[in-house]
Automatic annotation (TrEMBL):
BP-aspect Gene Ontology terms: cysteine biosynthetic process from serine; L-homocysteine biosynthetic process; transsulfuration
Cofactor(s) needed for function: pyridoxal 5'-phosphate
GO molecular function: cysteine synthase activity; O-acetylhomoserine aminocarboxypropyltransferase activity; pyridoxal phosphate binding
Organism: Planctobacterium marinum
Cross-referenced Pfam families: Cys_Met_Meta_PP
NCBIfam families documented for this protein: PRK05939.1
Name of the protein described by the UniProt record: O-acetylhomoserine sulfhydrylase
Length: 430
């Protein structure tokens, strides 16, 4: 075949693939989208991981054009590479955004986004129910002169009451950890839209498969790829997705250098240059590939984890040695109706308080299948006594504010066979 004919054939095949995937389901798109976007070489099904830090251009003009942002391309792998592009394209596509950036970890994504978009004198409204390390970073933001108000985001009125003249953004998690409070997602989104605030949503607990971030008007999705996306506890990664819903023209914190770009790109480009490039928390090619492979089974794993979690929650709810169960899928959960509105399933995280007559550590040591480990979103079921570990550093008062008791165990439910999980709990509680 001549090169020209081959070229036409390839373009046809790519266009055809795009048409084919257009109206297909989540799983179909997930496992075929990489072929569509990356044209892997030599028939390779996986995008090859490329460890090159540098990129050579025989015509120096090409390198200059990349540096000046006139054409897309790679110059140095701290900012971009083909493996990273492949993962970012998958994530942008399944989250329904206009662009995304990947980072070395969820915390790198979250902290970089704050530091790239906020400056001294700005005000941030943050949920009182956030991941422990995100909560810990509030202190750092304050030391840099960024004001932070911490509010109960299960009611939009609390967010509205905290808005000030210098408020720039609202930050919350969809389902919070460990007590599983569900944020007032859509009303807060509408408030942010009306007040022109950046609405940052950490959807680590509820990836695209079970949650439509655009339906609640999120501006930026931030979070961890380490959890459900990668799914097997073998790689760290973080993500920022721009949903395209926020009008960056109205954001006062866009620096001069980025004002010349098309409006839709301004926010993400500032996070990329001032954050990812300057602060350097980049993902490696190998990690990107490991996450991409894990993601292929995202929906299968979520279905199974959510299903197992609901059954286990229902079992624990009626057990006399359990004082309380926190799971949005239970009718008794205070935000059960909201959870049903926003999520197609209720997630794989549940927590419970043991009856005070049961010794927490002794009970945990009796569980045979369940791993005593921090982390969540794994294929295996994990348990951790949160007051003594993740939330130890913040002290009793903050824990009480967050609804965390000393006898609380947080579970991340895996994909094991449910009868085996139920039997493990039955014997440990006997
Ligand atoms: C784990 C987690 C993070 C941090 O992600 P890492 O990849 O561990 O850095 C952020 N937000 C939430 C809700 C998390 O569960």
């Amino acid at each position: 075949m001549s090169t020209a004919v081959l070229g036409v054939f390839l373009i046809f095949r790519i266009l055809n693939m795009s048409d084919i995937l257009n109206n297909k389901g989540f799983n179909t798109r997930l496992v075929h989208a990489d072929r569509l976007i990356n044209h892997p070489q030599d028939g390779a099904v996986h995008q090859a991981t490329n460890n090159s830090v540098l990129f050579d251009y025989p015509d120096i003009q090409d390198l200059v054009d990349i540096f000046q942002g006139k054409v897309a391309g790679h110059a140095y792998s701290r900012q971009s590479s083909a493996s990273i592009d492949a993962l970012q394209n998958m994530l942008t596509s399944i989250e329904g955004g206009v662009g995304s950036l990947t980072f070395a970890s969820g915390m790198a994504a979250i902290t970089t986004t704050f530091l790239a978009l906020l400056q001294q004198g700005d005000h941030l409204i943050m949920s009182q129910f956030v991941f422990g390390n995100t909560n810990s970073f509030i202190g750092t933001l304050r030391r840099y002169g960024i004001e932070v108000s911490v509010v109960d985001v299960t009611d939009v009125d609390n967010v509205a009451a905290a808005i000030k003249e210098n408020t720039r953004a609202v930050y919350l998690e969809t389902i919070a950890n460990p007590v599983t409070q569900v944020a007032d997602l859509l009303p807060v989104g509408e408030l942010c839209e009306q007040q022109k605030l950046v609405y940052m949503v950490d959807n680590t607990m509820t990836p695209a498969y079970i949650f439509d971030a655009k339906a609640v008007k999120a501006s930026l999705l931030v979070g961890s790829l380490t959890k459900y996306y990668a799914g097997h506890g073998q790689v760290l990664g973080g993500i920022v997705v721009d949903t395209g819903l926020y009008d960056w023209q109205t954001y006062p914190g866009i620096q001069e250098g980025f004002r010349g770009l098309p409006v839709a790109q301004q926010g993400l480009m500032q996070i990329k240059k001032k954050g990812l490039r300057d602060m350097g928390g980049c993902l490696t090619s190998e990690s990107a590939h490991a996450i991409s492979v894990g993601m292929e089974t995202l929906a299968l794993r979520m279905d199974r984890s959510c299903d197992n979690a609901l059954q286990l929650a229902q079992y624990l709810e009626q057990h006399p040695k359990i004082a309380a169960v926190y799971y949005p899928g239970l009718k008794a959960h205070p935000q059960h109706d909201k959870a049903s509105q926003y999520f197609s399933q209720y997630g794989g995280i549940l927590s419970f308080d043991l009856h005070e007559s049961v010794d927490c550590f002794a009970f945990m040591n009796k569980l045979q299948l369940v791993l005593n480990a921090t982390h969540l979103g794994d294929t295996r079921t994990l348990a951790i006594p949160v007051a003594h570990t993740i939330y130890y550093e913040m002290g009793a008062e903050v824990r009480a504010d967050m609804g965390i008791s000393d006898n609380m165990i947080r579970m991340s439910i895996g994909i094991e066979d449910i009868q085996d999980l139920l039997a493990d709990f039955e014997q440990a509680l006997a």
